[in-house]
Amino acid sequence: MRNKETAAILIQYWWRKKLREQLKIAERAAENARWQGLTRISLRNDELVEKLKKLQMEKNIDLTKYETILNRPARDVPMLLRCPDKSFLRENAEDIIKEKMLKLKRDKAARVLQRTFRKYTRNQIRSQFEKKILKITPKRRLELMAEIRDRLEKSKTVQTSSLNNLKSQIITGVEITL
Question: Hey, where are the domains in the chain?
Answer without folding.
Answer: 1-35, 47-135
